[in-house]
Amino acid sequence: METAEGKVTKTAESRYTKEQILSSATFAGRRDILNVLLTDGAEYTIGEVNRVMDGWLKKEVR
Length: 62
What we know:
- This protein is 39% helix and 6% strand.
- It contains three helices and two strands; from the N terminus they run E-H-H-E-H.
- The chain has helices spanning 18-22, 31-37, 46-57, and strands at residues 16-17, 43-44.
- A two-stranded antiparallel sheet has the order 1-2.
- It is extended and about 55 Å long.
- The model has no long low-confidence stretch (mean pLDDT 89).
């Protein structure tokens, strides 16, 4: 975001609790996975949730 002085500022992403993420329609199809991967009481951005989930889904099967 650019201010009136021409300086660029970084906007903070919204953070959500595990419970908020699990109850969202966005992650409805991945609730089981996220319930295991996310930590109770921690807060995450949507990007962090996607990275955690993608990392787990792309892990090599042993």
